[in-house]
Fold these 3 entries.
Entry 1:
Amino acid sequence: MKEKRFSLLSLLVTAVLAVLLTVGALAGGAWALLGPEGLGMVETVALVNTLFVGEHDLGTASDQAMDALIEGLGDRWSYYMDAEGYAAQQESRSNSYVGIGVTVTYPEEGGLLIQSMAEGGPAEEAGLRAGERIVAVDGTALTAENRQEGASLIKGEEGTAVTLTLESPDGSRREVTVTRKRVEEPPARGELLSDGTGLVTIKNFNSRCAQETMAAVEELVVQGAERLVFDVRNNGGGYVDELTALLDDLLPEGDIFRSETKAGTKRVVTSDADCVDLPMAVLVNGGTYSAAELFAAQLQEMDRGIIVGEPTFGKGFSQQTFPLMSGGAVNLSTARYYTGGGVCLIGAGLTLDREVTLTEEQNAALSAGVLAPEDDPQLQAAVDLLKG
């Protein structure tokens, strides 16, 4: 029997054909995935890298191109973040940050007016006081023109120190050195008012929201709360899982959330029978978005809560964040979401049980966290409705 042999030419032809087929498959896959527009962007980057003779920073150009690409989708909820912006978002969503732990406003005369301090935070430990004004940071004066830069000047790495010049209401000044450290920011807090109302303020639906909100609710119940008012004004939302976990704890058995992706994948979340059996209300305004908006809608839909405040925008897209090899990330709308009953809020917003508008001064106090319950007409209206 003769041994079958392959000639060098046939082996070369086979290898070339295999390479061509592989390249063709990759090109076809790239065409199907990226389309001509996406391939055009890849070609442009290759041309710049190989032929452009001018001085340039491709990283900056790429950031600008990515920003324009996502902005061109026309969806206000989708956006591009460079590496620094992505790191800041991750820190924000963890409800912790490195800093000195102060809440400030920006008075017209300049500086940063201290409204409150994080309990146990660096500012409180260093003896800063609410009502004082930060007029300089490490020797840089904060004037009416550059006061917006004050927050970034105060930021820095954990363990480093910053020297603040503080001005008291009587005009006297002092210098205090504060060491930056990680500050845990509670996403929710509870307060029992004198009339038996349990006020639960939810700042966001990011990490630990469900756990800390329910801890506040349970404490208020122990203290004898007769009703609950959830304040989600200026709450921009957060994670779906935090929202559904909280709704599950508060509401009786039933569907509490629905979503559908571009591919048609549907998700339905159902709560169990355990619930909080107290009258409830939710305070909302134009800054109530996303998970906060759906939270109010679901309590109302299941006849467990009323909604008081100002009209909301009506958001109905949920987003996912996709990290990129560049260190940045894309936040992209990937699903439509609905209440458990299938109601979409896009373009409609919430149906208010009572509309109450705050004055400009009251809104400023609310944003600064210093609007007292007795001076809050939206809170008082909600309490009146619950009592009635």
Note: The chain has three domains: 10-49, 96-184, 188-387.
Entry 2:
Amino acid sequence: MVDQGSSARDSWATVVGIDEAGYGPLLGPLVVSAVAFDVPVSFLKSLPDPAAGPDFWALLRASVARKPGRREHRLAVADSKKLHSRSAEGSNLTLLERAALTFLGVAGCTPGDLSALLARICPEVADKLAEYPWYAGTDLALPVAVEPTGLATQRNALAGDLRQAGIRFRGTWSEVLPEGHYNRLVGATHNKAVVLFGRTIRLVQRIAEDLGPRPLGIWVDRQGGRTGYRRPLMTAYPDARFEVLEESPERSGYRLAHRSATWVIRFVQKGEDHHLPVALASIFSKYLRELLMVCFNRYWCAQVPGLRPTAGYYQDGQRFLADIGAAVNRLHVDRQSLVRML
């Protein structure tokens, strides 16, 4: 437990978690998100294993659980794949939405619709989405799956737990790449891993600009099978003093010393299972992607009566493309704006 009295007079560092949703699908956007928590610097220095980072599940155990359960009243924060379910009736967003909107509420953001949510956490994407008929002019009222009164109760519990722990939730930042924009970047770089890394660096830059000079501890879910990130990090930050802390199959860590602050960036295998901020970032990424897929499916279902919606992954995506083929031709849709490069 962080001492509340000392945290008020201590200097702060920011702990960041980053994860993506939609890296592999055939249809729909790629979304990469980051979340940030402020913690006292002295608390981070006191950790027995700095590479493991703070255990936010333990710090927030009165209001947050590591996994969902029928009798679990606390907020479930875990890998988004464990919280999101699909059935023949469609997508169940309840657990994703409850976690995302509760944390946003603690940060003072209560969006009434998808447009407001995007304007808060990914303001540059509106003009991009306007280029796609399945996203342009569409919106969703929020919340879509949970009761607002239940959100208020969990928001109050989480806010009290954060105060008791002496930490602050600063908010979330997202990068959304619609299909055509994704394809253009992959075509230019010839490597979708480079595109994902680029979105990650953009998130770090946005956080640094919004929060100002301060120490950053950044945990990123490992991107593919890569274990070495030294070269792309040095390319992204050529003016920083650079130190490799470790490179192993489980974790790769780097220290970047700028003139204004020092950052430590770690890429962790299955990061969402070990770090609450990474799990929460995965929730925001999945939640945004699923909301946009609702818009995507509504558009195409209006064009093709009886069409079964898709989650966008390869096998079902191929089925979906075959089902909408005539409509794609009739509407003169450019496949480069619809079908993702793999």
Note: The first strand starts at residue 12 and ends at 21.
Entry 3:
Amino acid sequence: MEITCAAQLLELCESEGKSIPQVVAEYEAFRSMTNPAAVRERMGEILQVMREAVQGGIADQGEYAHLVKGYGQKVFQAKAAGQLLGGTLLNDVILYALSVAQYNAGLGRIVACPTAGSCGVVPGAVLPISEELGCSDEDVINALLVMAGVGIVSAAQGPISGAEGGCQAECGVASAMAAGAVAYLAGGSNEQVFDAASLALQSMLGLVCDPLASLVEVPCVTRNASAAVNAITAANMALAGIPAVIPYDEVVVAMKGIGKALPESLRETSIGGLAGTPTGKRIYRELKARHQLEQ
């Protein structure tokens, strides 16, 4: 049993009369030589880690981070003071995504989905939506299995690392995973799940990986928030019946081609992009001197 593309996953669901969460749980059980109940139990543990990372990130003042200091706390306080635009849901999406990414920068425990650099996207999108909809933990576990399904077919066909494909392969794929999960939580069909994933990734194609001073902090942390908002936007469009036009599998293949076309300077080397700006280079020099780093 091997799932290599979205079309195959959808076909399996239809032929067996099962939901995406059921098929993914069975697939993961097969791969790990366990059973679907154990897979769901493990996903429940992952859900708890995501929730703890949100709270840990809100409290994290950046003691162990170099560039990002208390980003979650800043948004939390600004929200409480009524300074933010867009309403509670939008602000919670930004808050949760930033907080988890802040927690990662501060050496906290996070869920890499699909990578540590994009760890805030899925919890940033899925948790606030589940709270707004009043979903049970079982509902959220199902959504996370949908998220995993999108991740499985993404990793099978394209890169999920910034070093290979740019940030489109990290925050972009994470946004697609989150969009599919959100569409599922809102009652979307299997086809709408992958329409949402496709629309999300389409909007992030070409995104480069250019972290300042080789740290997963700037612009990584704030990109997590942007990618989470993008996921909600894509899910809403899919739920409204806006077609993805390009099937998800083809979008992933396009992403892979774009990643190969990106120069090395824009694939996690901290040479080009924002890392190559005068300010980016100055920050690198300052950190190098402060920590006595070798060239």
Note: The chain has a mean pLDDT of 97.
